[in-house]
Design brief:
The chain is α/β, with parallel strands linked by helices. Helix content is about 35%, strand content about 15%. The chain is globular, with a radius of gyration of 21 Å.
């Protein structure tokens, strides 16, 4: 690549990690000053804060009134595991995997739960499995948005309304940025640390009436860890879904989640959040088109994520490297940008092809992305000198 002068304009916020993600614009820890620290989460004030998160989340996302939303342990991972261990086994299951997290759920289902009637439908990074082959007389487990591949399902049209099985959807990098069709989804999970820019440790689990009916009518054959148990005496533990958490939550993290929800409401709710993320994707697409050194990992525009944008490097010097060389070059690019203080955490996920991953969710300002692009081109040029 030809030498490029070092840019002078820097992103105001250099945090482009895909989780935990950038805090909202204007964020300050002062927003947490009213957190009820040192108080029991079972006290009136603690339960009221947890209930407020639940109510604001349901309203923002447009969750139907007869769906339950609960705060659970261990981030999105904990929420997904609760669903898998509690609900699966009643019928066969189709698992869709096109990136590392979907592959992880497939491993849990096949090797940990050891379900005999499990079909794993896979696609490589950058593509989707053939959605027409999914059998909805079975349970179906999938990610709405592949955080590590930048590939999302285009919509919910492929899911029938009259399905017999349950749809279990890991939506952690889609919730609050993509339009989730609730009538097509029976279980939805996410964490605050993605689109809301919240802190980690807690997950959110949303259940449809069909999922609740399964919980109350089916008991898995395997032992159930305490933090996964959602029923008692064959009935749903309703307290989980009004703020009576299974284990002790961090009230500081809860206060931070409330801050993210209130900010989301102030910019126009779900529509405002989605628009900000779409504008960021559009800015990246415009830059990619003119750059020539990078391309989207997801070739088809209709399946490109607007949050976790994954790019492959196609500059000739990079393409000529073997896999090990590409990994080294990627790490060198990421390290150079970090050293300059202009971009943090831009490397592709460890299991994904070597490249770049840029978080473009609603907490990221388009102006920061536009300031980032010249730095990316500069870094590509600088690192190429050591590999040609």
């Amino acid at each position: 690549m030809n030498a490029i002068a070092k840019p002078s304009l820097r992103p105001a916020n250099p945090n482009f990690s895909s989780g935990p993600c950038a805090k909202r614009p204007g964020y300050s820890v002062e927003a947490l000053k009213d957190a009820p620290l040192g108080r029991s989460h079972r006290a009136k004030i603690g339960k009221s804060r947890l209930k407020e998160v639940i109510d604001r989340s349901k309203a923002l996302l447009g969750v139907p009134a007869d769906y339950r939303l609960g705060i659970v342990p261990a981030s999105d991972t904990g929420a997904v595991e609760m669903a898998l261990w509690s609900l699966l086994g009643a019928r066969g299951v189709d698992v869709l995997a096109w990136e590392s997290f979907g592959s992880g759920w497939a491993t849990d289902i096949v090797k940990q739960l050891k379900l005999k009637d499990a079909r794993v439908m896979e696609a490589g990074y950058g593509e989707l499995p053939d959605l027409t082959q999914v059998d909805f007389s079975r349970d179906v487990v999938f990610t709405w948005n592949g955080t590590t591949s930048g590939v999302c399902v285009p919509n919910g049209d492929w899911i029938p309304a009259d399905r017999e099985g349950l749809t279990i959807c890991d939506a952690t990098s889609a919730a609050f940025a993509m339009d989730l069709p609730w009538d097509k989804l029976d279980v939805v999970t996410y964490s605050w640390q993605k689109v809301l820019g919240g802190e980690g440790a807690h997950g959110v689990l949303i259940l449809s009436p069909r999922a609740v009916a399964r919980l109350e009518s089916y008991a898995p054959a395997w032992p159930m860890p305490k933090i996964f148990r959602m029923t008692k005496g064959g009935k749903l533990i309703e307290g989980i879904f009004v703020g009576e958490t299974i284990n002790t939550p961090s009230m500081l993290v809860v206060e931070d989640a409330l801050d993210g929800l209130k900010w989301s409401e102030s910019i126009g709710g779900l529509a405002g959040l989605m628009q900000r993320s779409k504008a960021n994707l559009a800015a990246i697409a415009k830059w990619v088109e003119g750059c020539g050194a990078v391309e989207f990992l997801a070739v088809r525009p209709e399946i490109r994520s607007s949050t976790s944008v994954c790019l492959k490097i196609v500059a000739p010097w990079f393409a000529n490297l073997d896999a090990e060389g590409q990994q080294k070059a990627q790490k060198a690019i990421v390290a150079l940008l970090e050293k300059e203080g202009v971009a943090f955490d831009l490397g592709a996920y460890r299991d994904a092809p070597a490249g770049l991953r840029i978080w473009a969710g609603a907490t990221v300002e388009t102006s920061d992305l536009e300031a980032l692009f010249p730095w990316l081109e500069w870094a590509l040029g600088e690192v190429s000198k050591d590999f040609v």
